[in-house]
Amino acid sequence: MDFSVQSLHTMESELSEELRTVLKTAKVTSTMELNENSLMKLSKNCLTDITLRLVSLYEKNLNTCKSAAVKIDQLKTEQIENQKKLMEIKDMKIDSVQQAVKTELKTWADVAQKGIASKPITTKIVKEAVRSVNDEERRSRCFLIHGVEEKDGEIPFQIVQNVYRKLDFNPPNIVDSYRIGRKTPGKSRSIKVEVEHPTDALVLLKKAGKLRSTDLRSVYLSPDRNKQQQAAHNKLVAKMRTMIKEDPTKFYFIRDNRVKSVDKNNS
Questions:
Q1: How far is residue 235's CA from residue 233's CA, in Å, rounded to a whole number?
Q2: pTM exceeds 0.70 for this model
Q3: How far apart are CA 142 and CA 194, in angstroms?
Q4: What confidence tens digit (pLDDT) does each residue in 165-221 have?
Q5: What is the rounded CA–CA span in Å between residue 121 and residue 114?
Q6: How many C-beta neighbours within 10 Å does residue 200 have?
Q7: DSSP per position, 212-266
Q8: What are phi and psi of 175, to 5 degrees?
Q9: Could you say which DSSP state residue 30 is in?
Q10: d(CA 210, CA 216)
Q11: How many angstroms separate the CA atoms of 200 and 196, rounded?
């Protein structure tokens, strides 16, 4: 069986209901009063019924526990993979800053050697490089939600929570959530969401495809891209649309900054 948090709530409810039934049958008010003497007063048929119900609950809940164990192992594996990705992202950002500094220092050295006064020695470019990396770090903690109808008086935070529920995702702390862009009649703006850690955004984006099997099938998520990244992504989308027209027998998707495809018959 597929495990979900709801199955744990169901298990708790069934166990509580069965305990109440046993206490009522034994004519006691609490488990403290339930003992051998109170059970010995019950008929053989009553004890048989109680035993059979408990065995049935045991088997059902044992399967739930096994399913939960498999799910926990899966989540642990995903968490390890996400931590590795996060470390890779951090290393890339550190390398980016170091490379920017090295490049600027080399530029300064060239200027000094050539005696060119038109480009004064300044930390401005290095500061801009560091600012750019900081911006990318902030973007790594953000994602966008597209396709949600915009309504007057709506609360974006509640919309984000609903998306989390549909993905069966334990919500991380939401730092901020709001519509972006200029409001236009008849159009729904995207919702920008910022969480505390890049890992949370990565995990959610990885699960986003599951929305297609819910009542939010027209809703999709995307990373918070900068202008250059968005321009590159738009080119990939245009390329994908061309490929769809040329060969509609395949499903096309964008992954790892490339347009990929699979045969519809094999999907």
A1: 5
A2: no
A3: 4
A4: 888 877 667 889 999 988 888 889 999 999 888 888 888 888 888 888 888 888 889
A5: 13
A6: 20
A7: GGSTTTT-EEEE---HHHHHHHHHHHHHHHHHHHH-TTEEEEEETTEEEEEEGGG
A8: -70, -45
A9: S
A10: 9
A11: 8
Closest Cα partner for 25 from 12, 39, 44? 39
Residue with tokens 């930390």: 123
Share of the chain above pLDDT 90, in %: 10
- Per the CB < 8 A criterion, the answer to whether 104 and 129 are in contact is yes
Distance of CA 190 to the CA centre of its chain: 17
C-alpha angle 168-174-177 in degrees, rounded to nearest 5: 105
For 74-133, the pLDDT digits (tens) are 778 877 877 777 777 666 666 655 665 555 555 545 545 555 444 554 667 666 766 776
* Strands across the sheet containing 220-223: 174-179, 191-195, 142-146, 220-223
Q: At residue 16, what is the residue type? A: S
Q: At a CB cut-off of 8 Å and minimum separation 6, what does 203 contact?
A: 78, 82, 169
Q: What's the distance, CA 244 to chain centroid? A: 29
Amino acid (one-letter) located at 155: I
